[in-house]
Amino acid sequence: MTDTAALLTRRTLAGLAAAAAFAGTVRAQGKGTPLRVGLMLPYSGTFAQLGENITTAFELHLAERGGQLGGRPVTIIKLDDQSDPAAAPQNVNRLLARDKADVLVGTVHSGVVMALVQAAREKGVPLIIPNAGNVAAARELCSESVFRTSFSNWQPAYGMGLALAKTGVKKAAWITWDYAAGKESGEGFRDGLKAGGAELTQLLTLPFPETNFQPLLAQVPGLGVQAVGAFFAGGGAVQFVRDYAAAGLRDKFPLCGSGFLTEGTLAAQGAAAEGIRTALHYADGLDNPRNIAFRKAFREKAGRDADVYAVQGYDAAQLLAVGVDAVKGDMDADKQLFAAMRAARIDSPRGAFTLSAGHNPIQNIYLREAKSGENRMIGIAAEALADPGTGCKLT
Ligand code: PHB
After folding, report:
1. Which residue lies with its CA nearest to atom 7 of ligand 1?
2. 270 partner at 20 to 30 Å CA-CA among 125, 139, 294, 320?
3. Same domain, 132 and 10
Protein backbone atom coordinates (compact mmCIF):
# COMPACT_ATOMS: atom_id res chain seq x y z
CA MET A 1 0.00 0.00 0.00
CA THR A 2 1.37 3.45 -0.86
CA ASP A 3 1.55 6.18 1.81
CA THR A 4 -1.37 7.83 0.10
CA ALA A 5 -3.54 4.73 0.28
CA ALA A 6 -2.78 4.34 4.00
CA LEU A 7 -3.69 7.94 4.64
CA LEU A 8 -6.91 7.46 2.78
CA THR A 9 -7.82 4.42 4.84
CA ARG A 10 -7.31 6.47 8.01
CA ARG A 11 -9.60 9.10 6.61
CA THR A 12 -12.37 6.72 5.67
CA LEU A 13 -14.52 7.33 8.75
CA ALA A 14 -14.37 11.07 8.26
CA GLY A 15 -15.18 10.47 4.62
CA LEU A 16 -18.23 8.39 5.44
CA ALA A 17 -19.56 11.10 7.71
CA ALA A 18 -19.12 13.62 4.91
CA ALA A 19 -20.81 11.23 2.48
CA ALA A 20 -23.84 11.04 4.74
CA ALA A 21 -24.13 14.79 4.41
CA PHE A 22 -24.29 14.43 0.62
CA ALA A 23 -27.00 11.79 0.79
CA GLY A 24 -29.84 14.26 0.48
CA THR A 25 -28.38 15.76 -2.68
CA VAL A 26 -30.77 15.34 -5.61
CA ARG A 27 -29.34 15.98 -9.01
CA ALA A 28 -31.36 18.08 -11.42
CA GLN A 29 -31.42 16.14 -14.68
CA GLY A 30 -33.88 17.52 -17.24
CA LYS A 31 -32.94 18.67 -20.74
CA GLY A 32 -32.11 22.32 -20.55
CA THR A 33 -31.10 22.01 -16.89
CA PRO A 34 -27.51 23.17 -16.61
CA LEU A 35 -24.88 20.51 -16.05
CA ARG A 36 -22.90 21.72 -13.05
CA VAL A 37 -19.16 21.21 -13.36
CA GLY A 38 -17.09 21.90 -10.24
CA LEU A 39 -13.53 22.99 -11.03
CA MET A 40 -11.36 22.58 -7.95
CA LEU A 41 -7.95 24.04 -8.82
CA PRO A 42 -5.23 26.30 -7.41
CA TYR A 43 -5.83 29.94 -8.34
CA SER A 44 -3.32 31.23 -5.78
CA GLY A 45 0.12 30.12 -4.57
CA THR A 46 3.00 28.45 -6.41
CA PHE A 47 0.66 26.52 -8.78
CA ALA A 48 -1.72 29.42 -9.58
CA GLN A 49 -0.67 29.74 -13.23
CA LEU A 50 -1.21 26.00 -13.72
CA GLY A 51 -4.78 26.24 -12.48
CA GLU A 52 -5.46 29.26 -14.70
CA ASN A 53 -4.23 27.50 -17.84
CA ILE A 54 -6.24 24.35 -17.11
CA THR A 55 -9.36 26.46 -16.60
CA THR A 56 -8.89 28.63 -19.69
CA ALA A 57 -8.41 25.64 -21.96
CA PHE A 58 -11.32 23.73 -20.39
CA GLU A 59 -13.54 26.73 -21.10
CA LEU A 60 -12.09 27.02 -24.60
CA HIS A 61 -13.28 23.54 -25.52
CA LEU A 62 -16.70 24.15 -24.01
CA ALA A 63 -17.00 27.33 -26.05
CA GLU A 64 -16.05 25.36 -29.18
CA ARG A 65 -19.07 23.16 -28.41
CA GLY A 66 -21.40 26.10 -28.02
CA GLY A 67 -21.29 25.88 -24.22
CA GLN A 68 -23.28 22.61 -24.25
CA LEU A 69 -22.56 18.98 -23.43
CA GLY A 70 -25.02 16.18 -24.22
CA GLY A 71 -27.62 18.80 -25.11
CA ARG A 72 -27.36 20.56 -21.74
CA PRO A 73 -25.91 24.00 -21.05
CA VAL A 74 -22.92 23.91 -18.73
CA THR A 75 -22.42 25.94 -15.57
CA ILE A 76 -18.87 26.09 -14.24
CA ILE A 77 -18.24 26.57 -10.53
CA LYS A 78 -14.64 27.48 -9.62
CA LEU A 79 -13.07 26.87 -6.25
CA ASP A 80 -9.50 27.88 -5.30
CA ASP A 81 -7.99 24.91 -3.42
CA GLN A 82 -4.72 26.82 -2.76
CA SER A 83 -2.85 23.50 -3.12
CA ASP A 84 -3.67 22.91 0.54
CA PRO A 85 -4.24 19.21 1.39
CA ALA A 86 -5.63 20.06 4.84
CA ALA A 87 -8.50 22.09 3.37
CA ALA A 88 -9.23 19.64 0.56
CA PRO A 89 -12.00 17.47 2.14
CA GLN A 90 -13.97 20.59 3.08
CA ASN A 91 -13.47 22.10 -0.36
CA VAL A 92 -14.76 18.96 -2.07
CA ASN A 93 -17.73 18.94 0.28
CA ARG A 94 -18.52 22.52 -0.70
CA LEU A 95 -18.60 21.68 -4.38
CA LEU A 96 -20.84 18.68 -3.86
CA ALA A 97 -23.17 19.66 -1.02
CA ARG A 98 -23.38 23.43 -1.39
CA ASP A 99 -22.83 23.88 -5.14
CA LYS A 100 -24.47 20.62 -6.22
CA ALA A 101 -21.77 19.77 -8.75
CA ASP A 102 -22.67 16.88 -11.08
CA VAL A 103 -19.06 16.42 -12.14
CA LEU A 104 -15.73 17.21 -10.46
CA VAL A 105 -12.64 18.40 -12.34
CA GLY A 106 -9.44 18.79 -10.30
CA THR A 107 -6.76 19.28 -9.32
CA VAL A 108 -3.02 20.10 -9.67
CA HIS A 109 -1.50 18.93 -6.36
CA SER A 110 -1.05 15.20 -5.70
CA GLY A 111 -1.96 15.48 -2.01
CA VAL A 112 -5.07 17.58 -2.59
CA VAL A 113 -6.39 15.28 -5.31
CA MET A 114 -6.86 12.44 -2.83
CA ALA A 115 -9.92 14.14 -1.30
CA LEU A 116 -11.45 14.30 -4.78
CA VAL A 117 -10.61 10.65 -5.45
CA GLN A 118 -12.17 9.64 -2.16
CA ALA A 119 -15.41 11.50 -2.91
CA ALA A 120 -15.57 10.04 -6.43
CA ARG A 121 -15.02 6.52 -5.10
CA GLU A 122 -17.57 6.81 -2.31
CA LYS A 123 -20.29 8.65 -4.21
CA GLY A 124 -19.71 7.55 -7.80
CA VAL A 125 -19.47 11.21 -8.88
CA PRO A 126 -17.44 11.44 -12.11
CA LEU A 127 -14.00 12.92 -11.51
CA ILE A 128 -11.55 14.04 -14.19
CA ILE A 129 -8.04 14.84 -12.98
CA PRO A 130 -6.47 17.44 -15.30
CA ASN A 131 -3.02 17.37 -13.69
CA ALA A 132 -2.20 15.77 -10.30
CA GLY A 133 -0.12 12.69 -11.02
CA ASN A 134 -0.59 10.73 -7.76
CA VAL A 135 0.09 7.16 -8.83
CA ALA A 136 -2.47 5.66 -6.43
CA ALA A 137 -5.32 7.10 -8.54
CA ALA A 138 -4.34 4.75 -11.37
CA ARG A 139 -3.15 1.90 -9.17
CA GLU A 140 -4.65 0.62 -5.91
CA LEU A 141 -7.22 3.44 -5.68
CA CYS A 142 -8.31 3.27 -9.31
CA SER A 143 -12.06 3.47 -9.70
CA GLU A 144 -14.69 3.29 -12.42
CA SER A 145 -15.60 6.95 -11.72
CA VAL A 146 -12.04 8.39 -11.66
CA PHE A 147 -10.33 9.47 -14.92
CA ARG A 148 -7.14 11.33 -15.71
CA THR A 149 -6.19 13.37 -18.80
CA SER A 150 -2.68 14.21 -17.60
CA PHE A 151 -0.06 11.63 -16.49
CA SER A 152 1.03 9.59 -13.51
CA ASN A 153 4.02 11.06 -11.66
CA TRP A 154 5.94 7.96 -12.66
CA GLN A 155 5.55 8.41 -16.45
CA PRO A 156 7.58 11.52 -17.44
CA ALA A 157 10.32 10.82 -14.92
CA TYR A 158 10.64 7.23 -16.16
CA GLY A 159 11.19 8.58 -19.68
CA MET A 160 13.81 11.02 -18.38
CA GLY A 161 15.71 8.33 -16.47
CA LEU A 162 15.77 6.09 -19.53
CA ALA A 163 16.94 8.89 -21.84
CA LEU A 164 19.63 9.97 -19.38
CA ALA A 165 20.99 6.43 -19.02
CA LYS A 166 21.26 6.24 -22.81
CA THR A 167 23.69 9.19 -22.74
CA GLY A 168 26.13 7.08 -20.71
CA VAL A 169 25.40 8.54 -17.25
CA LYS A 170 25.76 5.81 -14.61
CA LYS A 171 24.83 7.59 -11.36
CA ALA A 172 22.33 10.39 -10.83
CA ALA A 173 20.46 12.11 -7.98
CA TRP A 174 16.86 13.42 -7.76
CA ILE A 175 16.04 16.71 -6.02
CA THR A 176 12.42 17.52 -5.23
CA TRP A 177 9.71 18.56 -2.81
CA ASP A 178 8.90 16.03 -0.10
CA TYR A 179 5.39 15.03 -1.10
CA ALA A 180 3.73 12.40 -3.31
CA ALA A 181 4.58 13.99 -6.67
CA GLY A 182 8.24 14.45 -5.75
CA LYS A 183 8.65 10.99 -4.32
CA GLU A 184 6.75 9.16 -7.06
CA SER A 185 8.54 11.00 -9.85
CA GLY A 186 11.79 10.01 -8.12
CA GLU A 187 10.63 6.38 -8.35
CA GLY A 188 9.92 6.79 -12.05
CA PHE A 189 13.38 8.32 -12.57
CA ARG A 190 14.93 5.44 -10.62
CA ASP A 191 13.08 2.83 -12.70
CA GLY A 192 13.99 4.55 -16.00
CA LEU A 193 17.65 4.80 -15.02
CA LYS A 194 17.63 1.14 -14.01
CA ALA A 195 16.01 0.06 -17.29
CA GLY A 196 18.90 1.84 -19.07
CA GLY A 197 21.60 0.29 -16.87
CA ALA A 198 22.16 3.28 -14.55
CA GLU A 199 21.42 4.01 -10.89
CA LEU A 200 19.63 6.57 -8.74
CA THR A 201 22.03 7.05 -5.83
CA GLN A 202 20.47 9.93 -3.84
CA LEU A 203 17.09 11.52 -3.21
CA LEU A 204 17.34 15.06 -1.77
CA THR A 205 14.14 16.77 -0.59
CA LEU A 206 12.74 19.88 1.04
CA PRO A 207 9.16 20.49 2.25
CA PHE A 208 6.51 21.69 -0.25
CA PRO A 209 6.31 24.54 -1.30
CA GLU A 210 9.61 25.83 0.17
CA THR A 211 12.21 27.36 -2.13
CA ASN A 212 15.28 27.61 0.06
CA PHE A 213 17.33 25.32 -2.19
CA GLN A 214 20.81 26.38 -1.05
CA PRO A 215 21.39 23.65 1.56
CA LEU A 216 20.55 20.97 -1.04
CA LEU A 217 22.55 22.57 -3.85
CA ALA A 218 25.59 22.77 -1.57
CA GLN A 219 25.53 18.95 -1.33
CA VAL A 220 25.57 18.29 -5.09
CA PRO A 221 29.36 18.36 -5.71
CA GLY A 222 29.90 15.77 -2.98
CA LEU A 223 27.31 13.27 -4.21
CA GLY A 224 29.50 11.43 -6.69
CA VAL A 225 26.89 11.71 -9.48
CA GLN A 226 27.28 12.69 -13.13
CA ALA A 227 23.88 14.37 -13.47
CA VAL A 228 20.96 15.69 -11.41
CA GLY A 229 17.27 15.25 -12.12
CA ALA A 230 14.50 17.29 -10.48
CA PHE A 231 10.77 17.59 -10.05
CA PHE A 232 9.57 21.13 -9.38
CA ALA A 233 6.76 23.07 -11.05
CA GLY A 234 5.30 26.55 -11.29
CA GLY A 235 6.94 29.28 -9.21
CA GLY A 236 9.15 26.74 -7.41
CA ALA A 237 10.58 25.51 -10.74
CA VAL A 238 11.44 29.05 -11.79
CA GLN A 239 13.42 29.54 -8.60
CA PHE A 240 15.14 26.15 -8.64
CA VAL A 241 16.42 26.45 -12.21
CA ARG A 242 17.74 29.94 -11.53
CA ASP A 243 19.42 28.90 -8.28
CA TYR A 244 20.99 25.80 -9.86
CA ALA A 245 22.60 27.94 -12.56
CA ALA A 246 23.64 30.65 -10.11
CA ALA A 247 25.36 28.02 -7.93
CA GLY A 248 27.59 27.22 -10.92
CA LEU A 249 26.49 23.57 -11.07
CA ARG A 250 25.21 23.40 -14.66
CA ASP A 251 28.46 22.57 -16.43
CA LYS A 252 29.66 19.82 -14.12
CA PHE A 253 26.32 18.26 -13.20
CA PRO A 254 23.86 18.71 -16.08
CA LEU A 255 20.31 19.31 -14.83
CA CYS A 256 17.35 17.40 -16.24
CA GLY A 257 13.88 16.52 -14.99
CA SER A 258 10.21 15.83 -15.47
CA GLY A 259 9.17 18.42 -18.06
CA PHE A 260 7.32 20.51 -15.48
CA LEU A 261 10.73 21.90 -14.51
CA THR A 262 10.71 24.12 -17.61
CA GLU A 263 7.00 24.09 -18.56
CA GLY A 264 5.27 27.47 -18.70
CA THR A 265 8.30 28.91 -16.90
CA LEU A 266 10.92 29.58 -19.58
CA ALA A 267 10.33 33.32 -19.88
CA ALA A 268 10.92 33.73 -16.14
CA GLN A 269 13.90 31.36 -16.10
CA GLY A 270 15.69 33.04 -19.01
CA ALA A 271 19.26 31.97 -19.77
CA ALA A 272 19.36 29.72 -16.68
CA ALA A 273 17.08 27.23 -18.49
CA GLU A 274 18.83 27.24 -21.86
CA GLY A 275 19.80 23.69 -22.88
CA ILE A 276 18.02 21.87 -20.03
CA ARG A 277 16.65 18.51 -21.14
CA THR A 278 13.38 17.27 -19.76
CA ALA A 279 10.83 14.58 -20.58
CA LEU A 280 7.10 15.15 -20.83
CA HIS A 281 3.96 14.08 -22.70
CA TYR A 282 3.99 17.40 -24.56
CA ALA A 283 6.50 19.64 -26.33
CA ASP A 284 6.35 23.00 -28.08
CA GLY A 285 5.95 22.84 -31.84
CA LEU A 286 4.45 19.35 -32.09
CA ASP A 287 3.50 19.26 -35.73
CA ASN A 288 -0.03 17.89 -35.76
CA PRO A 289 -3.16 19.75 -36.93
CA ARG A 290 -4.88 19.46 -33.54
CA ASN A 291 -1.93 21.09 -31.77
CA ILE A 292 -1.56 23.87 -34.29
CA ALA A 293 -5.27 24.77 -34.10
CA PHE A 294 -5.31 24.46 -30.31
CA ARG A 295 -2.29 26.73 -29.78
CA LYS A 296 -3.75 29.36 -32.06
CA ALA A 297 -7.14 29.32 -30.31
CA PHE A 298 -5.57 29.34 -26.84
CA ARG A 299 -3.33 32.28 -27.71
CA GLU A 300 -6.31 34.22 -29.05
CA LYS A 301 -8.37 33.56 -25.92
CA ALA A 302 -5.67 33.89 -23.25
CA GLY A 303 -3.12 36.25 -24.82
CA ARG A 304 -0.31 33.83 -23.92
CA ASP A 305 1.05 30.55 -25.24
CA ALA A 306 -0.41 27.17 -24.33
CA ASP A 307 1.56 24.65 -22.28
CA VAL A 308 1.03 21.12 -21.00
CA TYR A 309 -1.42 22.33 -18.32
CA ALA A 310 -3.59 23.96 -20.96
CA VAL A 311 -3.50 20.75 -23.01
CA GLN A 312 -4.60 18.67 -20.01
CA GLY A 313 -7.49 21.06 -19.28
CA TYR A 314 -8.60 21.01 -22.91
CA ASP A 315 -8.53 17.21 -22.92
CA ALA A 316 -10.49 17.06 -19.65
CA ALA A 317 -13.31 18.90 -21.43
CA GLN A 318 -12.94 16.60 -24.46
CA LEU A 319 -13.18 13.49 -22.28
CA LEU A 320 -16.18 14.82 -20.36
CA ALA A 321 -17.88 15.61 -23.67
CA VAL A 322 -17.45 12.00 -24.83
CA GLY A 323 -19.19 10.73 -21.69
CA VAL A 324 -22.00 13.28 -21.43
CA ASP A 325 -22.78 13.06 -25.15
CA ALA A 326 -22.99 9.26 -24.91
CA VAL A 327 -25.76 9.51 -22.29
CA LYS A 328 -27.36 12.60 -23.87
CA GLY A 329 -26.90 14.56 -20.68
CA ASP A 330 -28.50 11.97 -18.38
CA MET A 331 -25.96 11.77 -15.57
CA ASP A 332 -27.96 9.03 -13.84
CA ALA A 333 -26.86 6.68 -16.63
CA ASP A 334 -23.47 6.55 -14.97
CA LYS A 335 -22.50 3.03 -16.08
CA GLN A 336 -22.83 4.08 -19.74
CA LEU A 337 -21.14 7.40 -19.02
CA PHE A 338 -18.12 5.68 -17.47
CA ALA A 339 -17.98 3.01 -20.20
CA ALA A 340 -17.91 5.67 -22.93
CA MET A 341 -15.15 7.59 -21.16
CA ARG A 342 -13.15 4.40 -20.55
CA ALA A 343 -13.27 3.58 -24.29
CA ALA A 344 -12.54 7.13 -25.48
CA ARG A 345 -9.80 7.96 -27.95
CA ILE A 346 -8.93 11.59 -27.32
CA ASP A 347 -7.62 13.63 -30.23
CA SER A 348 -5.23 15.62 -28.05
CA PRO A 349 -2.78 18.37 -29.03
CA ARG A 350 -0.11 16.03 -27.57
CA GLY A 351 -1.14 13.33 -30.09
CA ALA A 352 -4.11 10.96 -29.77
CA PHE A 353 -4.31 8.86 -26.62
CA THR A 354 -6.42 6.14 -25.06
CA LEU A 355 -6.74 5.19 -21.40
CA SER A 356 -5.17 2.27 -19.56
CA ALA A 357 -7.15 0.02 -17.18
CA GLY A 358 -6.52 2.55 -14.38
CA HIS A 359 -8.01 5.32 -16.61
CA ASN A 360 -4.64 7.02 -17.13
CA PRO A 361 -3.36 8.15 -20.57
CA ILE A 362 -1.17 5.78 -22.58
CA GLN A 363 1.09 8.32 -24.26
CA ASN A 364 4.42 9.20 -25.77
CA ILE A 365 6.92 10.79 -23.43
CA TYR A 366 8.88 13.31 -25.50
CA LEU A 367 12.48 14.27 -24.83
CA ARG A 368 12.77 18.06 -25.03
CA GLU A 369 15.49 20.66 -24.86
CA ALA A 370 14.91 24.25 -23.76
CA LYS A 371 16.01 26.63 -26.52
CA SER A 372 15.19 30.29 -27.03
CA GLY A 373 12.10 30.17 -24.85
CA GLU A 374 10.71 26.86 -26.18
CA ASN A 375 10.78 23.24 -25.01
CA ARG A 376 11.65 21.71 -28.37
CA MET A 377 11.18 18.02 -29.03
CA ILE A 378 14.47 16.30 -29.75
CA GLY A 379 13.24 12.70 -29.60
CA ILE A 380 10.83 10.24 -27.98
CA ALA A 381 12.04 9.08 -24.57
CA ALA A 382 9.37 6.38 -24.22
CA GLU A 383 6.75 5.47 -26.80
CA ALA A 384 3.10 4.76 -25.84
CA LEU A 385 4.06 4.54 -22.17
CA ALA A 386 1.43 3.31 -19.71
CA ASP A 387 1.64 3.62 -15.92
CA PRO A 388 2.26 0.10 -14.54
CA GLY A 389 -1.18 0.28 -12.87
CA THR A 390 -0.03 -2.02 -10.06
CA GLY A 391 -2.92 -3.06 -7.80
CA CYS A 392 -5.70 -1.72 -10.02
CA LYS A 393 -8.50 -4.28 -10.28
CA LEU A 394 -10.35 -2.65 -13.20
CA THR A 395 -9.99 -4.13 -16.70
C1 PHB B 1 1.43 17.05 -8.55
O2 PHB B 1 1.38 17.44 -7.37
O3 PHB B 1 1.00 15.93 -8.90
C4 PHB B 1 2.01 17.94 -9.60
C5 PHB B 1 2.01 19.31 -9.42
C6 PHB B 1 2.52 20.13 -10.44
C7 PHB B 1 2.98 19.57 -11.61
C8 PHB B 1 2.97 18.19 -11.80
C9 PHB B 1 2.49 17.37 -10.78
O10 PHB B 1 3.44 20.34 -12.59
Report:
1. 233
2. 294
3. yes
State the closest ligand 1 atom to the C-alpha of 112, by its place in the atom list counted from 1.
2
pLDDT tens for the chain, residues 1 to 395: 455 444 444 444 344 344 434 433 445 566 689 999 999 999 999 999 999 999 999 999 999 999 999 999 999 999 999 999 999 999 999 999 999 999 999 999 999 999 999 999 999 999 999 999 999 999 999 999 999 999 999 999 999 999 999 999 999 999 999 999 999 999 999 999 999 999 999 999 999 999 999 999 999 999 999 999 999 999 999 999 999 999 999 999 999 999 999 999 999 999 999 999 999 999 998 999 999 999 999 999 999 999 999 999 999 999 999 999 999 999 999 999 999 999 999 999 999 999 999 999 999 999 999 999 999 999 999 999 999 999 999 98
Domain of residue 355 covers 3-151+287-359
CATH at 331: 3.40.50.2300
| Residue 96 placed within a domain | yes
Ligand 1: nearest atom to the Cα of 47? 6
- The reported pTM is 0.94
Distance CA 359, CA 347 (A): 16
List residues near ligand 1 (CB under 6 A). 47, 108-110, 131-133, 153, 181, 233, 260
Radius of gyration (Cα) for the chain, nearest Å? 20
